[in-house]
């Protein structure tokens, strides 16, 4: 709870001090670290002792393989394998590749600069056992896996800002991402169904599953302690039967539910009946009929005891489960239950009770006494964290590794029957054959985001798990860590219900921060106060506490008839009580939870659903596990902070502001109404005055603004970085701005903005900039592009390995002669030729040396243009070749089209190989981008516009105090957009600038009685300006006073990264597609712009038919080609062979007849194959588009001939 | 005081751009180590390592030649 | 022998016994115990009140449901009708153009005259 609220003050001195002397103990902005907390904590949970990997390897269990062939009934010796420990090391230099370095740690900055992956070694301690002997352990290295920055496997963990700066990182380095091949990537948060909670689903596709299937089902996503999940679904059939469905290794299986019940515990029909029907339900014939049918249908299987049922199940699922051959059917059945049925519970009795509960809920859904649960509501959702997903993948891969060892042993046993398990060399041979490189599989996952898993991990998507953590500016970067995606599966659905914003998301998902376009509503951002739990809370005392409140334990033989409300803890039934008592229990638990007594953890989610007529199925559902969203609110009875989750929120009464509290009804009150907004949405000033889509656009555009991506730019080699040279802090800001330290990353500039209809150049969302403001550096930005030059190490087998080196092959020669050659005169042509020859003899061109230094690398600070040499390299001559020819120096050229300056050159050495010379350099280019006409700007209210003119200051309107506006915006931009927030910001900015103070722009501060206009108007009046923000202005052109007072003030403008230099495309003639002879597409390839169907329509509408013909024929694929007049075909014309005295002419093959007999010279013509023909001379040239010939050929390939009539 | 009135003289030796800089005689260029900041002399064909700390990334130093910019 | 409704369970092992065998004796498959058939029982089933809706009853009931078309959602504005000169007009907005643009406003007058404006 933030007891100390930050103010809006500029805090210039404190920030300066923080920059000069970064703190040596902890970060000054804890709110930033809290924002990234879900990612880092989830990764830490994997590697910590007793963490997810330890739980995972316990779950993998023991895999066995036999060396006998099962012929004589004996299986032979048994080799058992298990995983004893999984280690992930911190990134270090490997010991055998590099023996000389002292500092062996690899830091993230080095990985970024060298474009490699930040990874740590994955070691697995295998346990081997032969028959029943002792366990032998063996360490195996399984490659290196990418490691999250600032996690507990990173060297930067817990470093203070001072130490971070020492290690070439930002002082506020957040971490939470991986570095893969030099690119920062992170695993997106995904929304999945809430765990361990049965949900009633009505889905029409359920009905299509089989003959009597209906659309009703109850689905539960059960999560094991190692976070892997298994979904079980109960389907309701028309006749009353219930079927259990699950998916294993991407196949689906259906089992009658009574078989599961009878396999779990030794039970009889009576017990099942009693469990399903409470006392008052006995009268309900709907239920009794169905239960009767359920039990009677099962009699057909004739499996009565638990052992029989387990044997039956084990027999059927033996192959599918992939168990050892020596397990009995009963054991396989038990393994089946352990691995698939309600995996979040360990005790079969708990599973039994839960199963009965689910069947009852299903019957209630069908009957109509309860309604379906909405899977799109945040009440039934939780977040899949990146670290947990990573752990799941590692577990699957390790399990696959064990299975591949088993497979390899089996293969070996089949080949050579003499396989001795105890022979160490034979074992080592097996290990050598198995693919041990799990590290590269994980690196592939991180770099592509594709999941190749045999089980699919119970997720509905296979790709799109990782994104590049773009560092366009800081807002974009931090919003990556707060974004939650629904899943790419939902992006293809046509229904829009997934995308809707529901009131239940209040406080958890930001209502405003979502992109517009195809991911609208699917890609949400967490509210800035919403946290995600990453640890299991301690719930050991809950059962005791509940018993003390009067809750009946489920183990009691016959429950009292009043105890109808179920109490569940993480999907396990822990008690029953009456509905009246349930309300008391829920309230008391909450009271004790907030108070801190009775050992009830604070982030426990107590979901009390009261009884209703046709509403949600009632019960008290308590959740304590990971991956839940929770947020802080104030608990009124105790006046302390309470953490609530989305499951309980719909049934709670949370007032928004203290005046709204209804005594007797409200139990909680929000700390601040802005807690529902995300970090970016909070930065929009006066967002409560804007139309909400405009706020959404600002949330988008703030992330595209050219700003300050970081402070450690010197040590980064991103592909492209945008930087604003003249960033300013906004005068109008919110206190959260200081809390998140966003002043370290300025995103725009304060501009004097006049809303005036003045030049006529600002129509349709264009804006005008003051030319002098531009010349003084308003909006001046720079782009940094990094290019890696060199040769990747490729080992080609058999082919000649090219041995290239950077530098001139004849460096000493050049050094000696170059000065003298340069001095040579160029006055006469002869001298010029001599000079040219002199350069040639050295093997270089004159212009190379302007940009390249004598070591072959570019000069830093030098201007390079398109085609200039950037680096010189040569091939090391082999001993056999003589150096007779001129020395051969080759060159890398600058491939961009814009002029750039060389900013940095890095020489990258190779890890481990001490004898290899430099193979790669990394060159950073700096391209200055001063604002041009056509560059996009925007205020912070979704008012984007393109710079249309740099208006000279002399022509600008001026105020009485002599100031001209920096930016002129058209008044037409406001009426339909309704962004009143910009007007208020204008007033506030003006007042703030006049009084020298920062203004607070948090939304929900003003109302009808205390208006913003009054508040800021007063400040303006104090400063001597007009209360309403208008000022009389004079025209810059005529000098007369304008008839109306102009609204002028100070607004924070952002420069967006869409610049005309990156978009313009021009072409007269150029490259052509081979197939259609039409201009190709693409700006980079010099392509043309398509004149599409709609453009054709408008040309026709104007009546410009020839213009259309010009565009589509003459400037596109105009060709002249031969056609035969008689048969009307393009394809049959062919040129005849030239003979002496006769030219080559084009004849039609089809119309010609083979020559037979007479030899009239002029009549006979020969084709390319030697055949002689007569006739077919009725050919002519016509002008057609080339695609017509292509169409002709394609149709001819299908056996359709086109015949053209040529006239005249 | 009077010598300050003299017109500005561009640095000597800059008329004809001398291609060979400080490394004329030796042919070796000096680079800065990314980690310890020490100046390391590397010849052509030598492996890239800092002599002091063994780090494998070296930065190139800025050119001694004058680069002219427009104040725009 | 335990009976619940029409279901008969074996008293020893709790197994559900067949309902119709023709004879008076019900034999349990699991434990072999013989139970006497308790005879026919009458069971009353009540359908839920919402199972057979009557349109007439719905019209008379206190709670009525309206379709979206029936609800009057237009707002009134002081705008002079260009045709008949009435002072008040009804209007409603629809987001017909791109989300970037404003909503299109449709005006309707009592005389039947309609017109619309963009932004």
How would you summarize this macromolecular structure in one to three sentences?
Chain B: Residues 1-21 are annotated as: Disordered. With 1208 residues, chain A is an alpha+beta fold.
Describe the structure.
By secondary structure, chain A is an alpha+beta fold. Chain A folds into 7 domains: 29-186 and 385-482, no CATH class; 193-379, RNA polymerase Rpb2, domain 2 (Dna-directed Rna Polymerase Ii 140kd Polypeptide, Chain: B, domain 3, Alpha-Beta Complex), CATH 3.90.1110; 531-679, Alpha-Beta Complex (Hypothetical Protein Ta0175, Chain: A, domain 2); 683-712 and 723-780 and 933-1055, Dna-directed Rna Polymerase Ii 140kd Polypeptide, Chain: B, Domain 6 (Beta Barrel), CATH 2.40.270.10; 802-929, RNA polymerase II, Rpb2 subunit, wall domain (OB fold (Dihydrolipoamide Acetyltransferase, E2P)); 1065-1114, DCoH-like (Alpha-Beta Complex); 1118-1197, DCoH-like (Alpha-Beta Complex), CATH 3.90.1800.10. Chain A is built from 30 helices and 51 strands. In chain A, the strands form 14 sheets. Chain A has a 6-stranded mixed beta barrel. The radius of gyration of chain B is 18 Å and the shape is elongated. Chain B is an all-beta fold and 72 residues long. In chain B, strands 2-1-3 form a 3-stranded antiparallel β-sheet, with no helix packed on it. Chain B has a domain at 28-60: Rubrerythrin, domain 2, CATH 2.20.28.30. Chain C has 119 residues and is mainly beta. Among the domains of chain C are: 2-36, no CATH class; 74-118, N-terminal domain of TfIIb, CATH 2.20.25.10. Chain C has 1 helix and 8 strands; from the N terminus they run E-E-E-E-H-E-E-E-E. Chain C has one helix spanning 55-60; strands at residues 2-4, 7-9, 25-27, 34-36, 75-78, 88-94, 104-108, 114-117. Chain C has a 4-stranded antiparallel β-sheet with strand order 5-6-7-8, with no helix packed on it. In chain C, strands 1-2 form a two-stranded antiparallel ribbon. In chain C, strands 3-4 form a two-stranded antiparallel ribbon. In chain C, a hairpin with a 5-residue loop joins strand 7 (104-108) and strand 8. Chain C is rod-shaped and about 95 Å long. Chains in contact: A-B, A-C. Chains A and B meet through helix 4, helix 23 and strand 35 of A and strand 3 of B. Strand 35 of chain A pairs antiparallel with strand 3 of chain B.
């Amino acid at each position: 709870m933030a007891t100390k609220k930050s103010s809006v003050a500029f805090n210039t001195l404190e920030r300066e001090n923080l920059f000069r002397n970064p703190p040596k103990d902890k970060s000054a902005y804890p709110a930033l670290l809290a924002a990234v907390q879900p990612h880092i904590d989830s990764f830490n949970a994997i590697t910590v002792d007793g963490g997810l990997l330890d739980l995972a390897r316990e779950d993998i269990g023991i895999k066995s393989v036999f060396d006998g062939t099962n012929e004589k009934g004996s299986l032979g010796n048994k080799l058992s394998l298990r995983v004893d420990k999984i280690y992930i090391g911190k990134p270090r230099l490997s010991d055998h590749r590099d023996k000389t370095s002292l500092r062996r740690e690899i830091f993230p900055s080095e990985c970024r600069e060298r474009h490699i992956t930040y990874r740590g070694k994955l070691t697995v301690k295998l346990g081997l056992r032969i028959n029943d002997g002792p366990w032998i352990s063996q360490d195996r290295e399984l490659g290196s896996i990418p490691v999250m920055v600032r996690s507990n496997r990173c060297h930067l963990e817990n470093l203070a800002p001072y130490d971070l700066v020492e290690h070439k990182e930002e002082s506020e380095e957040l971490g939470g991402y991986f570095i893969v091949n030099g690119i920062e990537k992170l695993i997106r948060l995904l929304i999945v169904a809430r765990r361990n909670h049965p949900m009633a689903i009505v889905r029409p596709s359920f009905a299509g599953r089989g003959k009597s299937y209906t659309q009703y089902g109850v689905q539960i996503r059960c999560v094991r302690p190692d976070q892997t999940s298994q979904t079980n679904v109960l389907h309701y059939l028309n006749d009353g039967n219930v079927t259990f469905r699950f998916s294993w290794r991407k196949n689906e299986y259906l089992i009658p539910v009574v078989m599961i019940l009878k396999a779990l515990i030794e039970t009889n029909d009576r017990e099942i009946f009693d469990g399903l029907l409470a006392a008052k339900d006995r009268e309900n014939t709907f239920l009794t009929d169905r239960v009767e049918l359920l039990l009677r249908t099962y009699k057909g299987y004739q499996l009565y005891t638990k052992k029989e049922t387990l044997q039956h199940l084990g027999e059927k699922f033996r192959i599918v489960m992939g168990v050892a051959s020596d397990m009995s059917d009963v054991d396989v059945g038990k393994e089946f239950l352990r691995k698939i049925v309600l995996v979040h519970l360990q005790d079969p009795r708990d599973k039994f009770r839960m199963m009965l509960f689910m069947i009852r809920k299903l019957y209630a859904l069908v009957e109509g006494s309860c309604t379906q649960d909405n899977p799109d509501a945040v009440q039934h959702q939780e977040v899949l964290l990146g670290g947990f997903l990573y752990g799941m993948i590692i577990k699957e891969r390790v399990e696959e590794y064990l299975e591949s060892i088993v497979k390899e042993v089996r293969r070996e046993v089949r080949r050579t029957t003499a396989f001795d398990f105890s022979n160490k060399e034979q074992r080592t041979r097996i290990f050598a054959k198995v693919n041990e490189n799990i590290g590269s599989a994980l690196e592939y996952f991180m770099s592509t985001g594709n999941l190749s898993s045999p089980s699919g991990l119970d997720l509905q998507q296979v790709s799109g798990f990782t994104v590049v953590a773009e560092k366009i500016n800081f807002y974009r970067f931090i919003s990556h860590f707060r974004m939650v995606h629904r899943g790419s599966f939902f992006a293809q659905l046509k229904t829009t219900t997934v995308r809707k914003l529901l009131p239940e998301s209040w406080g958890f998902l930001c209502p405003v921060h979502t992109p517009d376009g195809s991911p609208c509503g699917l890609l949400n951002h967490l509210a800035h106060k919403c946290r995600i739990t990453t640890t299991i809370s301690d719930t050991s005392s809950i059962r005791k506490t509940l018993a003390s409140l009067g809750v009946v334990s489920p183990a009691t033989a016959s429950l009292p008839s009043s105890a109808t409300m179920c109490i569940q803890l993480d999907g396990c039934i822990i008690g029953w009580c009456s509905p009246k008592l349930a309300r008391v229990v829920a309230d008391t638990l909450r009271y004790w939870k907030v108070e801190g007594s009775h050992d009830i953890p604070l982030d426990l989610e107590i979901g009390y659903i009261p009884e209703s007529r046709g509403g949600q199925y009632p019960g008290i559902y308590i959740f304590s596990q990971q991956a839940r969203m929770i947020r802080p609110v104030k608990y009124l009875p105790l006046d302390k902070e309470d953490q609530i989750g989305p499951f309980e929120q719909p049934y709670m009464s949370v007032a928004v502001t203290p005046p709204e509290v209804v005594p007797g009804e409200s139990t909680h009150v929000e700390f601040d109404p802005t807690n529902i907004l995300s970090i970016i949405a909070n930065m929009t000033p006066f967002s409560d005055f804007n139309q909400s889509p405009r706020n959404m656009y600002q949330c988008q555009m703030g992330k595209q603004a050219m700003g300050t991506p970081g402070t450690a730019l010197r040590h980064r080699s991103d592909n492209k970085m945008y930087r604003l040279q003249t960033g300013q802090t906004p005068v109008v800001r919110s206190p959260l701005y200081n809390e998140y330290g966003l002043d370290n990353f300025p995103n725009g500039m304060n501009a004097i903005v006049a809303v005036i209809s003045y030049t006529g150049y600002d129509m349709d969302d264009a804006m005008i900039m003051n030319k002098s403001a531009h010349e003084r550096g308003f909006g001046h930005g720079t782009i940094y592009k990094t290019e890696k030059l060199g040769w990747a190490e490729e080992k080609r087998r058999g082919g000649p390995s090219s041995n290239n080196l950077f530098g001139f092959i004849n460096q000493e020669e050049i050094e000696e002669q170059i000065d003298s050659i340069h001095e040579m005169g160029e006055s006469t042509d002869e001298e010029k030729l001599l000079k040219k020859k002199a350069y040639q003899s050295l093997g270089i061109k004159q212009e190379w040396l302007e940009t390249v230094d004598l070591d072959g690398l570019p000069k830093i600070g030098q201007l390079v243009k398109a085609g200039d040499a950037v680096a010189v390299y040569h091939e090391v001559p082999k001993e056999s070749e003589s150096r007779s020819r001129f020395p051969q120096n080759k060159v890398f050229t600058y491939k961009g089209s814009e002029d750039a300056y060389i900013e940095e050159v890095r020489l990258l050495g190779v890890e481990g190989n001490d004898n290899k010379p430099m193979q790669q350099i990394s060159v950073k280019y700096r391209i200055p981008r001063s604002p041009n006409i056509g560059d996009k700007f925007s205020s912070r209210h979704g008012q984007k516009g393109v710079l249309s003119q740099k208006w000279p200051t002399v022509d600008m309107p001026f105020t009485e105090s002599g100031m001209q506006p920096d930016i002129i915006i058209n008044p037409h931009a406001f009426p339909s957009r309704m962004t009143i927030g910009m007007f208020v910001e204008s007033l506030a900015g003006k007042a703030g600038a006049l009084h020298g103070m920062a203004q607070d722009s948090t939304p929900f501060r003003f109302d009808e009685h205390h208006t913003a206009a009054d508040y800021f108007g007063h400040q303006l009046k104090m400063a001597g300006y007009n209360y309403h923000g208008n000022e009389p202005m004079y025209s810059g052109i005529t000098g007369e006073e304008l008839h109306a007072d102009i609204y002028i003030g100070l607004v924070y403008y952002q420069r967006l990264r869409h610049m005309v230099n990156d978009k313009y495309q021009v072409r007269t003639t150029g490259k052509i597609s081979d197939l259609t002879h039409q201009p190709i597409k693409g700006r980079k390839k010099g392509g043309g712009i398509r004149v599409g169907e709609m453009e054709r329509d408008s040309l026709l509408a104007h009546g410009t038919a020839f213009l259309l013909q010009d565009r589509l024929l003459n400037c596109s694929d105009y060709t002249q080609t031969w056609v035969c007049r008689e048969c009307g075909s393009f394809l049959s014309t062919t040129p005849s062979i030239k003979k002496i005295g006769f030219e080559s002419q084009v004849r039609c093959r089809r119309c010609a007849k083979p020559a037979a007999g007479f030899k009239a010279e002029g009549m006979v013509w020969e084709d390319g194959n030697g055949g002689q023909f007569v006739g077919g001379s009725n050919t002519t040239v016509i002008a057609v588009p080339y695609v017509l010939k292509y169409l002709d050929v394609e149709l001819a390939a299908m056996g359709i001939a086109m015949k053209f009539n040529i006239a005249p | 005081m009077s010598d300050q009135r003299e017109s500005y003289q561009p640095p000597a030796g800059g008329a004809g751009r001398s291609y060979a800089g400080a490394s004329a005689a030796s042919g070796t260029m000096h680079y800065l180590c990314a980690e310890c900041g020490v100046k390391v002399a590397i010849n052509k064909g030598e492996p890239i390592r800092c002599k002091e700390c063994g780090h494998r990334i070296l930065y190139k130093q800025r050119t001694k030649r004058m680069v002219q910019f427009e104040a725009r | 022998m335990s009976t619940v409704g029409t279901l008969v369970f074996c008293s020893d092992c709790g197994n559900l016994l067949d309902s119709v065998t023709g004879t008076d004796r019900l034999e349990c498959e699991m434990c072999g115990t013989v139970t006497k058939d308790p005879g026919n029982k009458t069971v009353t089933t009540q359908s839920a009140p919402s199972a057979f809706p009557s349109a007439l009853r719905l019209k008379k009931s206190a709670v009525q449901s309206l379709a979206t078309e029936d609800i009057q959602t237009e707002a009134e504005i002081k705008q002079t009708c260009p045709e008949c000169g009435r002072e008040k007009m009804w209007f409603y907005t629809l987001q017909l153009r791109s989300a970037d643009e404003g909503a299109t406003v449709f005006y309707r007058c009592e005389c039947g005259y309609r017109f619309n404006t963009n932004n």
